[in-house]
Amino acid sequence: MKCTINEVHKYVNEEVTIGAWIANKRSSGKIAFLQLRDGTGFIQGVVVKAEVDEELFTLAKKVTQETSVWVKGIVQVDERSPFGYELLVTGLEVIAEAVDYPITPKQHGTEFLMDHRHLWLRSKRQHAVMKIRNEIIRATYEFFNQEGFVKVDPPILTGSAPEGTSELFATKYFDEDAYLSQSGQLYMEAAAMALGKVFSFGPTFRAEKSKTRRHLIEFWMIEPEMAFVEFEENLEVQEQYVSYIVQSVLKNCEIELKTLGRDTSKLENIKAPFPRISYDDAIKFLHEKGFDDIQWGDDFGAPHETAIAESFDKPVFITHYPTGIKPFYMQPAPDRDDVVLCADLIAPEGYGEIIGGSERIHDMELLKQRLDEHNLSMDAYQWYYELRQYGSVPHSGFGLGLERTVAWISGVEHVRETIPFPRLLNRLYP
Q1: C-alpha–C-alpha distance, residues 167 and 34, integer Å
Q2: Is 144 found in the same domain as 48?
Q3: What is the DSSP track for 245-270?
Q4: 375-412 burial code (b ≥16 CB/10 A, e <16)
């Protein structure tokens, strides 16, 4: 019976055939242990000298790391294994021999591993991170589909910048200037006016010269937008969504979290509602903690976010930021024109902001005023302005950065491990 590693539980005490790679091996005089992987998981193959012919045992002892094989064996329960099963090998056939595989079981430097990212992905740790990333994506689609959202794909090439910044990758679009998208948000607002509740999932690009463990040049964002939804309801959707994906990972990625040594007790507590602190109170809190460098009107850096997050055991919303440090499209607070109806969701354990969201301006005169204040061309934003001209409604949305969220949930330190092929300030290869 041909099967995959994640299916062996169906065939206990039966003989199966698995296509796999040799992740690692060790042997004594009478027994050889083959660590096998096939993409779906890892299992140990045991080759007992006394129970197989000499040719098979010799092959098992000499087969090299990352050689591809057909392995035949009897599935056995193994309570000592994190996986719960092992394979008593009865046959082994080499498909393609790997010679001098560069990533050996010894320690390697980060740059070496990044140069060999195409191979590093095969390791048990990287496999676990990618499986958790996949589960977050799967749970994202499940959550928004259950909540009545429609998936919409915004363009990657745009003629303007949603954030109005200079941190853009510019290119020529025939005889026009174009940019790689920083966010699909503005287009998702248009989609929300047509479909009510929408979400996108796609790549975004920031030409930001940052080398921190939280930053990538190319990353993926989940961006929902909702018509007839105001600020408070927007926050509720965010905390329900984050709770949902965390609990889905706990339920479906137990082996992967164990592989990474993740303290799951910290994740079990991640359930809505989440605490909230206003920007004003956050400034006071930081001053009490000795952060005299931060003043009202400044944006928070990583040390400030971490200090605030450490006071809570769940993600925390920081709300009502100053108008001057936020993008042009955010709705002012009803009782104050110096702050906007926005929130950043800060993850625990020093992982920083994972969501930015706000109620959007729905008054066309105020939007025109904001475009003028930000020196943004009305010609470029005419279509966005028209969303307010033809049946405007209160609406809200947010964006979740996938890689930071994967890093937090999986417990890895750097976002470069949370995307298959990271694009960093000094890295475009492989």
Answers
A1: 49
A2: no
A3: HHHHHHHH-HHHHHHTT--THHHHT-
A4: ebeeeebeebeebbeeebebbbbbbbbbbbbbbbbbbb
Residue recorded with tokens 């769940």: 314
Does 61 map to a domain? yes
Are residues 403 and 419 in contact, defined by beta-carbon separation less than 8 angstroms?
Answer: yes
Tell me: do 323 and 228 sit in the same domain: yes
One domain, residues 128 and 86: no
d(CA 187, CA 200): 10
For residue 224, the surrounding DSSP H or E stretch is strand 218-227
Same-domain pairing of 68 and 204: no
What are the residues whose beta carbons fall under 8 Å from the beta carbon of 138, sequence distance 6 or more?
248
In sequence order, the 6+-apart residues with CB closer than 8 A to the CB of 271 are 243, 247, 314
> What angle is formed at CA 286 by the lines to CA 285 and CA 289, rounded to 5 degrees?
90
Q: In degrees rounded to 5, what are phi and psi of residue 350?
A: 80, 20
From 20, 7, 23, 14, select the one nearest 259 (Cα to Cα): 23
Q: What is the pLDDT of residue 159?
A: 86
CATH of the domain at 413: 3.30.930.10
Residues of the chain with pLDDT under 70: 161-166
- Alpha-carbon Rg for the chain, nearest whole angstrom, is 26
Selection from 383, 386, 420 nearest residue 158 by Cα: 383
CB-based contacts of 302: which residues, under 8 Å, 6+ apart?
212, 214, 350, 352
Q: Which residues of 88-123 are buried (b: 16+ CB within 10 A; e: fewer)?
A: bbbebeeeeeeeeeeeeeeeeeeeebbbbbeebebe
Given this model, what pLDDT does residue 167 score?
84
Domain tally, the chain: 2
Compute the distance between CA of residue 245 and CA of residue 236 in angstroms, rounded to an integer: 15
Residue 71's pLDDT is 98
The span from the CA of 227 to the CA of 197, in Å, is: 6
pTM of the model: 0.97
**Given the DSSP bridges, would you call strands 352-360 and 342-347 parallel, antiparallel or unpaired?**
antiparallel
CA-wise closest residue to 34 among 80, 84, 73, 77? 73
Q: Which residue range is the domain that position 146 belongs to?
A: 118-417
Record the tokens describing residue 99, joined without a space: 């010679």
For position 29, what pLDDT does the model report? Answer: 86
Cβ contacts of residue 64 below 8 Å, gap of 6+? 22, 97, 98, 99, 101
Count CB neighbours of 75 within 10 A: 23
Q: How far apart are CA 335 and CA 286, in angstroms?
A: 25
